[in-house]
Each structure stands twice: as structure tokens, then as C-alpha cells.
Specification:
- The chain is of the alpha/beta class.
- The strands form two sheets. Strands 3-4-5-6-7-8 form a six-stranded parallel sheet.
- Helix 2 runs parallel beside helix 9.
- The termini are close together.
- The chain has a single domain, classed as Alpha-Beta Barrel (TIM Barrel), CATH 3.20.20.140.
- Helices cover 41% and strands 9% of the residues.
Length: 266
């Protein structure tokens, strides 16, 4: 449910910039071709691409580009930005393109997810049935934390009809607060880029507290290793039913896909 790709002419520069800022190595080159290759290696049938717009002016061009990536193996989400002058028109455009949701990144886009100025955006997303996918918790490259579990809890209180996914198990390196403020709420958590920062016992505790039916598999590739993450999940003492739920069935349900459409997917 959580991967990133860039246009071929930008991928090398974009990936190198993130690697320098975060002191991490990528698992593939950030291109669509590289993602497809890594998916085959990890036995993943379908991935969701999550673009991030660092400027409001980038939103439309990103959305038109990412929509063209859609095929049997790639589901694109759209980009959105809190400073976009007319987010409702852009959501109508996403619906016309057949895109099921959009990504917001409070750290890179410098906003708190519970700001009241964003209420019209959230109301429109709920109206159009669009999934709102958030980066959650710390960002390894940035000093401030805006996307806290407490802020998301306030957002959920104000917008109970909104379908929300929080990356990194609800808040990267804020998992105590996730247990306190978000566990059991009507929100999806993805487990992307949680290794090695979240150990196996803590992950199992979060899944048990939140409910396995609201946990999604993600890698944050190219920053997270798809193959390693699948292998680690399969090695954990989950039942086959719970593993199927995390690895593909919850995603199929969230995206409105028939269960047989996803045998093993991200």
C-alpha cells in the first residue's frame, strides 16, 4: 500500500537527495521499472504508489503523471497539498481519473493534520469517497513533528466519516502514543519503514491492540525493503488468516477490489 516512484528523468536526483538527507540506502532506483523488478523479486502482485507534492503548484502535473501509471500491477494515489487554492476541483479530477485517494505529508508540507483550515478539504474527501493517506510520526530527515498521534486523534474526532490511513504504524517512533491515542480507532495503519525501529514484540502488541483487520502491508519503497518486510511478516507467529489480512485482504477491501484480484500484494 505504500511505495514511491519518480519519472525516469528525475528518479536518480530525487532518490539521491533523500538518501543524503536520511543517511539511508535505497532498495531500488526509484523508477517504475525498478519497482516492477523489486515486486517480482518479492512476489508482490500489486503495489500502490503514493506521490508527495512539496508545492501546491505541483499537484495537477503529479496527478496527471501518476494516473498514467495505472495497470494491473500499479494502483496510483494522487498528490494533494494543504495550500492548494481549490482542492475540491482537484478531487473531482482525481475521481474522474479513477484514483481512489491522495497522499498528504504534514512534515514536508509543513502543516498539522488537525488544522481547522483543512476541514473543507476533509469534508470534500469524505463526500467523494477518497482515502486520505498520511505520513505519520517523525520523518527521519526533518527535526519537527507535526503528524503526531494526538493530532490525528483530534482529526478523527472531527471527521468520523473520513477514511484515513496512517503510515508507519500510526506514528514513526511514536508508538507509545499510538497505543494510547489511536489503537482501536476507525483508522488504518500501514507497517511501512518500521524495521528495525519497531521490534517484533512491539509490532505484535500494536496489531493486537488496534485489530488486525485495520493493518496494511507497506514498505515505503525504495526506502524500505519489500522482500525483507514480507519475509519478516511471514516469520512472525500470526495465523494464516491474519497474515492474509495484513498482506493483501485488508488492502483489497479498502480499495474495493474483489479478493481474488490480490493473491499477494502490497
Amino acid at each position: 500500500m505504500h511505495t514511491h516512484v519518480f519519472p525516469d528523468q528525475l528518479a536518480a536526483t530525487a532518490v539521491a537527495a533523500v538518501c543524503r538527507a536520511c543517511a539511508i540506502a535505497p532498495c531500488f532506483d526509484g523508477t517504475l521499472r525498478g519497482l516492477h523488478s523489486f515486486m517480482r523479486h518479492a512476489d508482490i502482485a500489486r503495489s500502490v504508489v503514493q506521490p508527495v507534492a512539496s508545492k501546491a503548484s505541483q499537484v495537477r502535473s503529479i496527478n496527471d503523471w501518476v494516473a498514467a501509471l495505472a495497470d494491473d500491477s500499479i494502483i496510483p494515489f494522487g498528490a494533494m497539498h494543504p495550500d492548494l487554492p481549490d482542492p475540491v476541483t482537484e478531487m473531482e479530477h482525481l475521481v474522474a481519473l479513477g484514483i481512489p485517494g491522495f497522499k498528504l505529508h504534514p512534515e514536508y508540507q509543513a502543516f498539522s493534520p488537525d488544522e481547522e483550515r483543512l476541514d473543507p478539504l476533509y469534508v470534500a474527501a469524505a463526500k467523494y469517497g477518497l482515502i486520505v493517506y498520511f505520513h505519520a510520526g517523525e520523518d527521519i530527515a526533518l527535526p519537527d513533528v507535526r503528524s503526531t498521534p494526538q493530532a490525528f486523534a483530534r482529526l478523527l474526532d472531527r471527521h468520523p466519516d473520513l477514511t484515513v490511513v496512517l503510515a508507519h504504524m500510526g506514528g514513526w517512533r511514536q508508538w507509545d502514543e499510538v497505543l494510547r491515542d489511536l489503537a482501536g480507532r476507525d483508522v488504518y495503519l500501514d507497517r511501512s519503514f518500521t524495521l528495525p525501529y519497531l521490534d517484533e514484540e512491539r509490532f505484535k502488541e500494536l496489531v493486537a491492540a488496534h485489530g488486525v483487520e485495520k493493518v496494511l502491508f507497506g514498505s515505503d519503497g525504495p526506502w524500505g525493503d519489500l522482500s525483507r518486510d514480507v519475509a519478516q511478516l511471514r516469520a512472525m507467529p500470526f495465523s494464516r488468516d491474519a497474515l492474509d489480512a495484513i498482506l493483501w485482504r485488508n488492502a483489497a477491501s479498502l480499495l474495493g477490489l474483489p479478493a481474488e484480484a490480490l493473491l499477494t500484494s502490497e
